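Bug #2210: token dump truncated for Protein LURP-one-related 15?
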Amino acid sequence: MTQPEASAPSVAYAHPAVAVVSPHFCSPYPMDIAIVRKLLTITHGSFVVTDVNGNIILKVKGDHLLDTAGYPILTLRQKLMSAHERWQVFRGKSTKSRDLIFSTKRSSMVQFYTKLDVFLAHNTTEKVPDFKVKGSWSEKSCVIYAGDYSTIVAQMHKKRTVKSELLGKDHFMVTVNPGIDYAFIVALIVILDEINTASTPTVPT
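Reproduced locally. Full output below:
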């Protein structure tokens, strides 16, 4: 009797709700969003986040992630004098330690692909990251994982169009898996963009 061929190992997709910022930003269904950078504005870190129909659902101005009414949801701050380019993300307009939600840092000093470790505020020992981000900025893509590299929570790729080039905009298309906090995902991608925009090209170890 012929034995069935073994199937290739597959990557799991997270389904239980992961509300890092708020359950308000978790959808029970896969969610496609666009993070649009306005290249021709003078405001540092200026983005809008839209759904598939083009409706604005979030905004980024400077170091703040805002809701559609302009209310600050998160404050993103780079920690100065940090060897691993650590960023900290706080609730609302606060930068106090009690309002810290999560932090990120490069997995290593020298990287060919950008890899970030993400630690939730309660993970004070930081022995094991709660999330990982792996991106190739030359290809403008990244994958965000929960825990180890076996559970995908979101994936991003860059979309260029003639219209976007004329308007001076970059479109980062993101698929957020069911139950995943899309405000958290947007914050991670904005941090990744800031790190790669500010960094000089790195070489493999």
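Output looks complete on our side. The longest strand covers residues 151-159. Marking as cannot-reproduce; reopen if the truncation happens again.
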